[in-house]
Amino acid sequence: MMNKWVMWLMVILLFFPLGITKSHSQQTDIKEISTSNFEKKKQCEYPSDIQKIIDRGKIIVGLYYKDKPPFIMTDKNGELYGLDIALAKDIARRLGVGVEFNREATSYTQLHEIAATGVTEKGSPVDVIISKFSRTYERAKRVRYTQPYLTFRQALIINKFAAAKNKIEDYPMDFLRTAKVKVGVREKTSYVEYARDMFKNAEIVEDKWENIVDMVINGKITAVIRDEYEIMKLVKKNPELAIKISVYILTDRKDHIAMAVPCQSTNLLAWLDMYLESRQEVLDARDIIKKYPEAWK
After folding, report:
1. Burial (0-12, 13-18, 19+ Cβ within 10 Å), 240
2. pTM
3. Contact indicator for 156, 255 with CB cutoff of 8 Å
4. CATH fold for the domain made of 152-256
5. 203 Cβ contact list (under 8 Å, min separation 6)
6. Which residues in the chain are classed under CATH 3.40.190.10?
7. 43 φ, ψ to 5°?
8. How far is 256 from 81, CA to CA, in rounded Å?
9. Is the distance from CB of 108 to CB of 190 less than 8 angstroms?
10. What gap in Å lies between CA 175 and CA 43, rounded to an integer?
11. Which helix (H) or strand (E) holds 21?
């Protein structure tokens, strides 16, 4: 009888641990499968417009091909810096990626096309334009803009002789809005659209900046329109111009500087807007003069 109980005890001791081991093994297999599925899901958790940046390991930012102080500048070591460069680098840091700057665009018309399509003429991808890029109605038909990170007031240069002749020294806008005069703008920029919108009867003359400044000084055109920062910098560097021109700051006309992405990049746009909102500041001309005094000299 005793031998029979010993036999049963040995059977229990022999098989019971094996049951525990098998159960544990099954639990381990289930856990490993679950973890594997989670990792696969994690790799695809971002929307496509952000996922491609993460996969690439860098965000590609479109810039104008020339330096534009204080937005894009090059230091003595050949390194880029400035307001737009600082923003791009901080955005990349917060996304957890590197940053690459593409400078293929030789005009703002090309920058707009790159923003709309997400590629350059050479086929290089670009995720976002950060390059003193103004918001306009026409541009917004093909791109998505972020909220502004900088707002300028628009400004005018008026030929003093023309102002006196037409008796508009105190306030020229009422006259310019209706008169058949020539108004100069820097070619292929947002100010072409701004000028056409404001001066319905005027002939809008597009040319290089230095050329249209010469035209208004010599009386070949009546006025020039651009942002307050560039016009203030022009007068500061050339104080002798005060003899021939007057400057008017248009307090009711704004030039909003923002980032631009292709229309399909809705998630990147939302992320960039959140980033800009978290900064809790929209800079103006005085801010960037203070922040980058070397560009103002």
Report:
1. exposed
2. 0.83
3. no
4. D-Maltodextrin-Binding Protein; domain 2 (3.40.190)
5. 180, 181, 182, 183
6. 48-150+257-296, 152-256
7. -65, -20
8. 21
9. yes
10. 61
11. helix 2-43
CATH topology of domain 48-150+257-296: D-Maltodextrin-Binding Protein; domain 2 (3.40.190)
Quick one: tokens of 206?
Answer: 């597009």
* Sequence-ordered strand ranges (E) for the chain: 58-64, 73-74, 80-81, 98-105, 128-134, 143-145, 150-159, 182-186, 203-207, 223-227, 245-262
First to last CA, the chain: 109
Percent helix, percent strand, percent coil in the chain, to nearest 5: 50, 25, 25
**Structure tokens given for 241:** 């111009």
Single-letter code of the amino acid located at 187:
E
Q: Scan for tokens 């100010």, then name that residue.
A: 191
Residue 250's identity, in one-letter code, is: L
Q: If the chain, 297 residues long, is cut into consecutive pieces of 10 residues, what is the mean pLDDT of each piece?
A: 50 46 43 47 77 97 97 96 98 98 97 98 97 97 98 97 95 95 96 96 97 97 97 95 96 96 98 96 95 90
